[in-house]
Design a protein that fits this description.
Number of domains: 2
Low-confidence stretches: 278-285, 297-310
Strand order of the largest sheet: 1-2-5-4-3-12
Structural class: alpha+beta
Number of strands: 12
Largest sheet: 6 strands, antiparallel, barrel
Helix content: 25-40%
Oligomer: single chain
Number of helices: 2
CATH topology of the largest domain: Thrombin, subunit H
CATH superfamily of the largest domain: Rod shape-determining protein MreC, domain 2
Radius of gyration: 52 Å
Distance between the termini: 200 Å
Shape: rod-shaped
CATH architecture of the largest domain: Beta Barrel
Order of helices and strands: HHEEEEEEEEEEEE
Length: 310
């Protein structure tokens, strides 16, 4: 079938075309006036709008989809950024909370040390542990005070719970402390319940003290508290040392051997006290200065002269 290729324009030049144009214009004017006055074409426009509206929506759909995609991508990026920001804030809040908890614990330990200082009634100096000897056979720590701060060899070191050790090395601004659990350390102690005196030696473990020579006749029980006896003049008397946790007889059967748990927090303490004044003066007290009114001076009697002339 042949396809018509008539391409004659609607308004071609000529008189007929002009008349046709005038007719169309007149018809358009009549329709506009009629619609304006009577609204005859409102229904037609409504029907055509309903028919054409899907085409408008279909034409706008690509742009709407593109905009929705951009918004979704932007929302996703914003949510990701907000999540990262909230994660950082949460980490910072947790770090601050942990720091506050640590500061609270430090304040609590310092308060305990202050209470110990007041209860001892002796001269003490606050110090901080700044280093720990890593040798498993040498239980020693380093403090941030030394000779320039008035520390001396042999001075006792305590924490809020008990005796920790004594100063064995000294530098201008630091000192070395041997802990009571060091294998080479020995400490005179007393069983608080009975008054039995013995020696507590370091066992090479931070949670163990050894009491190797207790008479079998001594009344010593598991759970008895050990306190320093004050003998030797290095440690204050009556200060907690440990608690007996096990008792057994030695190989000879003549003595009992016990193990004790130290009272001091040897593996946790960070702040300690260096004791400066430990024992009272040894020997009898000095003679008291006599008091009262002074004794009257002795006067020589007057002897009358005999046989003399006046």
């Amino acid at each position: 079938m042949a396809i018509s290729s008539d391409s004659t324009p609607l308004f071609a030049p000529g008189a007929s075309s002009t008349l046709r144009l005038i007719g169309y214009l007149a018809l358009a004017i009549v329709l506009m006036v009629a619609d304006h006055r009577g609204g005859y074409l409102e229904r037609v426009r409504w029907t055509l709008s309903i028919a054409i509206e899907p085409l408008y929506r279909l034409a706008a759909l690509p742009a709407q989809l593109a905009q929705a995609g951009r918004l979704a991508l932007a929302d996703r990026e914003e949510l990701t950024r907000q999540n990262e920001d909230l994660g950082r804030r949460l980490m910072m809040a947790e770090a601050k909370l942990n720091q506050l908890s640590t500061v609270h614990e430090q304040n609590q330990r310092l308060k305990e040390l202050l209470d110990v200082q007041r209860s001892l009634g002796i001269g003490v100096q606050l110090a901080k542990i700044i280093d720990v000897d890593t040798d498993p056979f040498r239980h020693r720590v380093v403090l941030n005070v030394g000779a320039n701060q008035g520390v001396g060899i042999g001075q006792a070191v305590v924490d809020a719970r008990g005796i920790m050790g004594q100063v064995v090395g000294l530098l201008p601004n630091t000192c070395t402390v041997m802990l009571i659990t060091d294998p080479t350390h020995a400490l005179p102690v007393t069983v608080e319940r009975t008054g039995q005196r013995t020696i507590a030696r370091g066992a090479g473990a931070l949670d163990t003290l050894e009491l190797p020579q207790i008479p079998v006749s001594a009344d010593v029980k598991v759970g008895d508290r050990l306190v320093s006896s004050g003998l030797g003049g290095h440690f204050p008397a009556g200060f907690p040392v440990g608690t007996i946790r096990a008792i057994s007889n030695d190989v000879t059967g003549m003595f009992a051997a016990a193990t004790a748990t130290p009272s001091a927090a040897l593996d946790r303490s960070g702040d300690v006290l260096v004791v400066h004044e430990l024992v009272d003066p040894i020997g009898p007290p000095e003679a008291a200065t006599p008091s009262g009114p002074p004794a009257p001076a002795a006067s020589s009697p007057v002897v009358p002269a005999k046989g003399g002339k006046s």
